[in-house]
Amino acid sequence: MWRTIGHEWAIALLQRAIDTGRVSHAYLFTGPANVGKTHLAKEMAAALNCAGDASPCGSCRACLKTARGTHPDVFLVEPGNGSIKIDQIRQLQRQLALSPYEGRQRIAIIADFQAATVQAANALLKTLEEPPSRVVLLLAAVDASLLLPTIVSRCQVLPLRGLSCQQIERALIGRWHERPDLARLLSKVSGGRIGWAISAT
Ligand SMILES: [Zn+2]
């Protein structure tokens, strides 16, 4: 069961791709900071290697390891010192060239890809043009217009929007046991950014 809050249409699309065996080589999640892009990408990574019945089950070894960031076939790349550099992409490519160690797929999650240098973006383009088998790339960026068009055109783009106040309020009360008055206040000032609202509790 997916635990991502909101973004129901994107979850339905990803679940359908898994169920029908038609998973794309690359997805690009776009949307404001703290709207849940990387969280959804991590759940997709878990779902792709999940051994449970209703993937992502959240309780099998693959799901637990992916959530903890210790799955040997799931690689997370984030900006270091403000940018994603070509060395990070080259290291990732070496890892993706190997067969999956214990999962069905090797999965790269690249957060804040708008922070990639031109050299890093061009290096990743080669992987997008000739994706290794059993590899899925999950990119996240604030806006597709900040990326090379050649990158965007090779990804299935999932534009995520901010959540409604009601969704955030319900989640803060139901999942994070926040006081109702505080949950309402936080949901109103969050601007739809669930990650921000959670970090403020
Ligand atoms: Zn699972």
UniProtKB/TrEMBL annotation:
<dbReference type="InterPro" id="IPR004622">
    <property type="entry name" value="DNA_pol_HolB"/>
</dbReference>
<dbReference type="InterPro" id="IPR027417">
    <property type="entry name" value="P-loop_NTPase"/>
</dbReference>
<dbReference type="GO" id="GO:0003887">
    <property type="term" value="F:DNA-directed DNA polymerase activity"/>
</dbReference>
<dbReference type="GO" id="GO:0008408">
    <property type="term" value="F:3'-5' exonuclease activity"/>
</dbReference>
<protein>
    <recommendedName>
        <fullName>DNA-directed DNA polymerase</fullName>
    </recommendedName>
</protein>
<dbReference type="Pfam" id="PF13177">
    <property type="entry name" value="DNA_pol3_delta2"/>
</dbReference>
<dbReference type="GO" id="GO:0006261">
    <property type="term" value="P:DNA-templated DNA replication"/>
</dbReference>
<dbReference type="InterPro" id="IPR050238">
    <property type="entry name" value="DNA_Rep/Repair_Clamp_Loader"/>
</dbReference>
